[in-house]
Amino acid sequence: MDAMIQYYMEETEDMLQKAEECLIRLEMEYSSTDVNELFRIAHTIKGSSQMVGYEDIGDIMHKIEDMLDGARNNSILFDQSIVSLCFKGLDMVKKMLQHKKEQGSQEMMDDFINDATRIKEMIEAFIRANKKGGEKNATEESAKGIVSSLLNKKPKGKNRFYITFFIEEDAPMVSPVFMMILKTIGEIGNLVYSSIGDSYFSELSRDNEIRTFDIILCTDIEEAELYTYFALSYVERINIVDLSRSKLEENDYCFSNGDDISYIIILRVFMKLYNMLFNESKELNISKEELSTIESLYLEAANACGRMKDKNKISTFIRDFNELFLHILKMCDDQWNAEEDFCSNIRTQMVELTERAYNYTKGKHLFRVFKAKKTDFVNRLRNFMDMVDKASTLIILIDLSSLDILGETEVKALIEMKRQMEFHGIETGVIVDGYDARKIINIFDSIKPLEEFHLFKTELDAILGVLYSQDSFHRIMNKIKDVQYK
């Protein structure tokens, strides 16, 4: 090894050891002497590395030097984030130095250089985010901060995206990563929404608590290009949702589209069919008269599906719905050997289709869901009940899973509202799950002599429990028996 290189190696290793000792002391308490010593070491290693041709080491030490210079002249507030970044940078320098000493592979060195680049970007972003005062640029960024500055700009661009950024766990600091993201946003479009505000960047003690960042970006850039722009250091992954009107219009819901009647007819067919085929007995004994009724129900349901205005959205459901009926007709044919396993499979398919139908319709047609919060849930529930369309609603599910207890006043209010809904022919189901479920269930058990509530663990359990119970079957069928197209 060249004598000059050998001397450089020995001196640099000694200085790195002294730098680590300074950092350990700075972890315990601030000392301007240690900060100045660190700066001197960084400056010396930078210069000597450049002199022997180790520009890669010199570059990362240059960034550390800049950060420490800001800390010692008070243009950057010194905190443990600086200590963390220094440790990260010096550790990388030690690895690079050892690799050069052992004359390791270029491939490994390239990996070290890539890691060093990420650390340099982090330090640069940290300096930008935490520099006090400074001259304003030509755009005169708002004194409120970078987030406010970006939000205050008028949105431009044909595309709009909701993007979630997930930050790597080993990122020494998160705020510089967010700064890099915001800088990129400013270069390619406009910020419409940000899950963090300017205050975040002044709350460095909380820096590592947040590992996700949500934004809405308005831009002319297409989605496929965004992945390149946001492939930033310490960004582990991103999730992009296209909010452009052309992408979202298929989810539009029209309040007056008339599909309520179609869903009611399909539900009526399902309930009649389920009750006919699977009520109590596992055996299948279908008379010719009942077979004729099933065929009539199938035609009624097929007609309802065909008249839906939103049928394109549920085309797969309609296809599976038709296939199920064809299987049932075959099963009921005198020549078909309907074994118990086949009957069980039909029943399972009906339950699965019921779940899918519920997911299509909940909150829109037939089924309403209210999720209670711990504060003022009774008044919120009353307002919700008042706004419900009583004519088109069959079932209301009240989810109490977030509550840990029910008071006497709340229980009385629930009884009152349940009876009001029954007057309008609306079934009520209560969902109770979670850590405090047993306490809530005990309360409902204690009032059974006065009023019985149907309790369930999930929304699907509630829908199946209400639809396919005999009492609910008769009440719901009585309400919808005369529904038909005008």
TrEMBL record:
Example of a GO biological process term: phosphorelay signal transduction system
HPt domain span: 1-100
PROSITE patterns: HPT
One Pfam family linked to the record: Hpt
Protein keywords: Phosphoprotein
Source superkingdom: Bacteria
Gene3D superfamilies per UniProt: HPT domain
InterPro entries per UniProt: Bact_Chemotaxis_CheA, HPT_dom_sf, Sig_transdc_His_kin_Hpt_dom
Modified-residue entries (Phosphohistidine), positions: H43
Name assigned to this protein: Hpt domain-containing protein
Organism this protein belongs to: Lutispora thermophila DSM 19022
